[in-house]
Amino acid sequence: MSFKTLAAYVLKRTVDFKKSQIILRGVLILYSWMGAIGGTFESIKFEKITPQHCGPQRLNSGWVDKSRSSCAARCLARFGTCHGFMYNEVTKLCTPSSGLSAEQSTPSKAEGDFYFSDSCQSYPDFRTKYNQSTQAHVAYYSSPPVNYTNAKAACECMNSHLYVANTLEKWWLINAIVNIDHHVFIGLDDMAQENKFVWADSHQEISSALKIAMFYLGQPDDSGGQDCVWKKPHNVLLDDVKCSEPAGYICEKTLC
């Protein structure tokens, strides 16, 4: 029996979304038992969220479906990359999603509420970048350029943080991630305490040795209230800058 047949059986006999959600998780486990998902156990749980600074990556323009549970089941049955869906309770529009992206708009009123399954695969923009000595799971955004506050918020919307170059190896890895022509924010600022530049993930202060190695000579100098840090074009060296300046940015997630 196919997953689609099993899901249809569930949908015919359950109308409550929470109950059908539990049963669908069981169906997915049974489906994986049958070898249809690589022979491993799978458990899918969608939760309603309201993203503010990123949006769902739409898989198509959607279809009319009778219920949220039916929408969820058909999304999973039709798309191997289904990690969310939008559902309008009035119009019954179901819009499938492969996850969250900083390049996508938030759900519209017409699309309805967004239901999301959070996993390593739920953020399609992220890629693992390597050099000879380190690696990082990152997403790079260059257009449109945004200020530091919005860059930070976009990363957090995707359960990540601005890139932390807290070793020389990760600092050099920036060259493998970004377009050499662009200004790029990283996760380092002294917004909380003047002249104490801390990393976005740990809030630990950058060491004196790294500051000397990574910054332009004489920087950071806090000229005119420069509390944020970016990489300038055509060079891996860092400089402090006003947080209101527009730039590209790198988001970083924990390696899965």
Automatic annotation (TrEMBL):
Pfam families: Lectin_C, PAN_1. The chain crosses the membrane at residues 22-41. SMART domains: CLECT. It comes from the Eukaryota. SUPFAM superfamilies: C-type lectin-like. This is C-type lectin domain-containing protein. The keyword Kinase does not apply.
